[in-house]
Design brief:
- The chain has 3 domains: about 55 residues, no CATH class; about 130 residues, Fusion Protein Consisting Of Minor Coat Protein, Glycine Rich Linker, Tola, And A His Tag, Chain: A, Domain 2 (2-Layer Sandwich), CATH 3.30.1150; about 45 residues, no CATH class.
- Strands 1, 4, 5, 6, 7 and 8 form a 6-stranded mixed beta sheet that branches. A two-stranded parallel ribbon has the order 2-3.
- It has 8 helices and 8 strands.
- The longest helix is centred in the first third of the chain and has 27 residues.
- Helices cover about 25% and strands about 20% of the residues.
- It has about 280 residues and is of the alpha/beta class.
Length: about 280
């Protein structure tokens, strides 16, 4: 290289003066700054893309809690309650006209003196032509020696029959032939609970994730009115109070049926609040 060209020549040209520039070392040194610049720009672009994705993801609101209502059923024995169909009353059978039969009163004999006999016993012919009973009665001559049936409320010897027990339909019945039901059946009852229960109660009260089941007991009287609504357990966080509140508002039910009569029946309802993370 001439002396006059040294001041204007590139450093690499001075270093590689008189050497083989096609070997590769010259090109590597010549393009070093360009390669470094491309590497820095690529790294900066990747960093910007990563920050943009992180920022876009942090802007979305994620609801980590949810409350669902499960395990809804009408009765602890059965989950499905059929609609109540009141059977028609039994037909009234007219009573047959009463026909009185001639009865001869005959009581066990007592041995007494003849002068103290006030009513002589009936003779054998009379006993053969009439029925035998505790007292004498006029009527049709049956011509039979059968013993007359007992009168109403008495036996054949005149003693009183035990009184028949009359069914009382005023008290609480369990079990019953047909259980009480919500108007519209089990499906309508489930929809009522889902629409009226405040599912956010346990979340608002700070309940941790999990299931909170409340068993509610209540009476449905023979007029369909709901009363005595009480929670048999209390998982806390306002769940028992909320379940009782909604069942008290359920208005008129279809009463239970026993022997063709509407009766009072106690129901049990399980409501589960589920809090999810």
């Amino acid at each position: 290289m001439n002396t006059s060209m040294i001041l204007s020549a590139d450093v690499l040209d001075i270093i590689f003066d008189g050497r083989n520039k096609a070997y590769g070392a010259y090109d590597l040194r010549k393009t070093y700054q360009q390669r470094v610049r491309f590497a820095l720009l690529g790294t900066a672009g990747l960093c910007l893309l990563l920050f943009a994705l992180l920022f876009a993801g942090s802007g979305k609101k994620v609801d980590k809690r949810d409350v669902t209502i499960t395990d809804v059923f009408i009765s602890p024995e059965r989950q499905v309650v059929k609609p109540v169909v009141v059977p028609p009353p039994p037909p009234v059978i007219p009573k047959a006209p009463e026909v009185k039969v001639k009865i001869t009163g005959f009581t066990p004999p007592h041995i007494v003196p003849d002068d103290k006999v006030t009513v002589p016993p009936p003779d054998v012919k009379t006993l053969d032509e009439t029925r035998i009973g505790p007292k004498t009665q006029d009527g049709i001559n049956s011509g039979s020696d059968e013993v007359a049936p007992p009168e109403n409320g008495t036996t054949s010897n005149g003693t009183a029959l035990p009184a028949q027990k009359k069914e009382d339909y005023e008290g609480e019945f369990h079990p019953v032939q047909m259980e009480a039901s919500f108007p519209g059946g089990a499906t309508a009852w489930s929809k009522y609970l889902e629409r009226n229960l405040n599912s956010n109660v346990p979340t608002d009260m700070g309940a941790p994730a999990g299931k909170y089941t409340v068993i509610v007991s209540f009476l449905v009287d023979k007029n369909g009115n709901v009363s005595e609504v009480v929670a048999e357990n209390n998982p806390q966080f306002g769940t028992a109070e909320e379940a009782v509140r909604v069942i008290k508002k359920s208005h008129t039910w279809t009463p239970a049926v026993q022997n063709g009569h509407y009766v009072t029946y106690r129901m049990k309802q399980a409501v589960t609040f589920q809090v999810n993370d």
